[in-house]
Amino acid sequence: ARQKTILDIQKMKAEGERITMLTAYDYPFARLMDQCGIDMILVGDSLGTAVAGHDTTLPVTMDEMIYHAKAVVRAVESAFVVVDMPFMSYQTDVRDARYNAGRLIKEGGAQAVKIEGGCNMAETIAAITAMDIPVVGHIGLTPQSIHRMGGYRVQGRQEEQAKRLLDDARAVEQAGAFAVVLEGIPRKLAAEITRELSIPTIGIGAGVDCDGQVLVIHDILGLCEKYSPKFVKKFADVSGMIRQGIDDYIREVKDGEFPTPDHSFD
Ligand code: KIV
Ligand code: NA
Prior knowledge:
The chain is an alpha/beta fold.
């Protein structure tokens, strides 16, 4: 299949087709979801927690994002690939943001970059868009803001906060983002934002009325056993399968059942 473009993604909102997005951080996962026909792949900075074992996404570096992006891009034939801009790669100033967004495209092979923030990032989104790099916004529960939020909590519950989030959504669209992730906000607010905007909204913990859905692949496959937030559904129990396979390997090697002559060279 031909690789999807920004035009395909925007057309899906226009035609009411739900947009599917998952995170991938390496070649095998990206290949599998691409073959399944996923619309968009996000090389998320959630790789910091999902595969690198950090407590937050804050330590993730540009070089790490590029390394994982390259592995994913090598596997992809049809999905649209978005790569996250990590903490400190765009907040410091607009020039840094432009430079680092360019690196994710040029070195990482991304088709678009994602930035956390609303009104406060409008100028940055506009600057990156102006260098012809498509931008996905990300508002609501923004994990890089963990210390401001005081934890991973649903955003926009109070009326004042909800109004600010609607302003953020408008600002992101106005600045030129071609899609926006809505994370951790009440379903009614997400529905209102989705109605208000002409760009697609992609929800995670944002109810049932967004134009698309994104989740972390490790969460939906049951690979992340530490905790499971309410918005995650476990579509498979891969941890159980992996543990079974490893248990069997250990037992067969210990017992001398494996390897057999069939696995040996003459
Ligand atoms: O890094 C990530 O995985 C994300 C999504 C979950 C939206 O930003
Ligand atoms: Na992210």
